Predict the 3D structure of the following.
Amino acid sequence: MRVLGIDPGLTRCGVGVVDVESNRTARLVDVVVLRSPADLDTPRRLARIADGIEAILEEHRPQAVALERVFARSDVSTIMGTAQISGVAMLIAARRALPVALHTPSEVKAAITGYGRADKAQVGAMVARILGLDAVPKPADAADALALAICHAWRTGGVAGAAVLDSAAATTVTDASTLTPAQRAWLAAERSAAVSGAARRLKE
Amino acid sequence: MRVLGIDPGLTRCGVGVVDVESNRTARLVDVVVLRSPADLDTPRRLARIADGIEAILEEHRPQAVALERVFARSDVSTIMGTAQISGVAMLIAARRALPVALHTPSEVKAAITGYGRADKAQVGAMVARILGLDAVPKPADAADALALAICHAWRTGGVAGAAVLDSAAATTVTDASTLTPAQRAWLAAERSAAVSGAARRLKE
C-alpha cells in the first residue's frame, strides 16, 4: 500500500510517501518539505503548496492520503494557514478520488512510538528505524509526514481505503522474521489490541 | 467592476456577484448559497463547494474575489470548515490569477451600514436597498456574500486589483443624482475620509 502523508503548514508543509507491505514493513519512496515565502499573499502561498502536492501525487500515485487532523484549539498564530492547507490538500485528494484519512498527532505518536505523548525526537528516531534510514529525516515536518503515512498504513492494516485496523488484516502477517524488533513489538501490541477490541465487541 | 463575494462555510457558503460602477451604484448579477451535506466526508464536501465556486467564476467572470477574513478566535465548532473553505476559495482564485481581498465582518458592516457592529438584519436591509431589491436576500449567507462584494468594490473605489480607496477614484463620481440617499451619504462620508486621509498624509 502506497500512502502519502501530509503534515500541513503554510510556511513548511511536510509531504512523505511510503510503501507499506501487509507484513508492516515500510519503505521510503520520497519525502519533501514544501515551502512558501511569507512575503507572498496567502492565495499564492496556497497555490505554491498545492502545486507541490499535485506534483508528488502525479509522480508517485499513492493509493491514500493521510493528513494530520487539525484542531481549532491548536496554536492560534498558525492555525489558519494549517487549516487552509489541509482544506486545499483534501480538495486535491477528493478531485483525484483518493481516500483521505485524518489522524491526530497523538494517534500518530502512539502508532509510531507506542506513546501518545512522545516528543518530536522520539518520533523522528522511530521513523528512521522503521524505514531503515541512516539518519532522522529533517526538518521535523518531513519526519512527521512520514510518521503520518506509516501510521495510516498500519492502522488500516495496509488495505487502501480501509478505515480501521481489523483483526483479519493483522492475521495476514505470517513472516514476522523480516520485521525489525520495533515492528514485531508493534505487531504484537496491535494484534492484542485487535483481539481485545473484538472481545469487547462480543461482550457488548 | 465585477466582484465575487464569498461568505465561506462548509454547510452553507454564500456566493454573490455584483457589478459596481465607479459612481458606486451596484447591480446584482447573481447570488447563490452553495451547500454540502453533513453526511458526506470533508474532502467531498470541500470539492462540492469548490465545484460551485468554479461554476460561478466560469459563468460570470468577476475581476476580483472578496472573502470574509476568518479569525482563529471565531466560533470553534465551525472555524475549521470555514478556514478550509476559505483556503479552497483562495486556491481557486489564485489559479485563475484573480486578486483576492479579505475583509473583516466589521469592515463589511461599516462599509454597508456605517456601523461596524450592525446586526444581520441591518446588513441585509442595506444590501437590498443598495442593489434595489424588493426583498432582503435569504439566507443571511447570501446577503453577507453580496455585502462583501459591495464592500470590496466601494473600498477599492471600483478599481479591480486596487487595495484601498483613494481620493482620485472618489472624485470620478460626477453624477450624484443617480445615487440612493444611502449611497449619497456614503459617498460624502468616504470623500471626507479620503480628503482627511490625504490631508493627514500631507502633514506627515
